[in-house]
């Protein structure tokens, strides 16, 4: 499922709900409860009753990244950004692809482009999590930038000759 298919899927199943009712389904260890509180198609995502956060994902990416696999991490992020659940990885487990997709699909539904950045904004922070492992970018700064709710969009770091994904522009 790519992002457009994900948006349509969520909007369609929510359209089929009786008024004032909720429902849910599971994807691996994720529970998706709908409808959410924002736009049509929104949902609540939890793992064992706890909503995952973007900072959780930044930390996971940081922990997986080494100087030896940095390019693979960047290619992985680009693959998920472009292909959603159709992405593949030998570096990250399938459950991580699913978590990344479903948490960023929420952004695509609730903050669509061109008015907002949709999934691009969190993917930029995820890339910066990897970048902080191999450069002078500070992880704590990336985590603070990830939690900048209500503030303006952070400027992107200058990466020089370091590999950048297609969305980091």
Automatic annotation (TrEMBL):
This is Uncharacterized protein. It comes from the Bacteria.
């Amino acid at each position: 499922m790519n992002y457009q298919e994900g948006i349509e899927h969520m909007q369609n199943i929510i359209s089929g709900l009786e008024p004032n009712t909720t429902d849910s389904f599971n994807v691996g260890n994720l529970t998706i409860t709908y409808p959410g509180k924002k736009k049509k198609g929104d949902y609540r995502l939890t793992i064992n009753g706890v909503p995952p956060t973007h900072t959780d994902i930044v930390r996971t990416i940081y922990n997986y990244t080494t100087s030896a696999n940095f390019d693979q991490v960047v290619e992985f992020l680009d693959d998920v950004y472009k292909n959603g659940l159709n992405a593949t990885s030998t570096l990250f487990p399938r459950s991580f692809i699913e978590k990344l997709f479903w948490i960023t699909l929420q952004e695509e539904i609730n903050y669509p482009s061109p008015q907002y950045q949709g999934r691009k904004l969190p993917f930029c922070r995820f890339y910066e999590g990897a970048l902080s492992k191999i450069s002078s970018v500070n992880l704590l700064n990336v985590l603070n930038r990830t939690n900048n709710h209500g503030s303006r969009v952070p400027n992107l770091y200058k990466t020089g000759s370091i590999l950048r994904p297609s969305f980091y522009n």
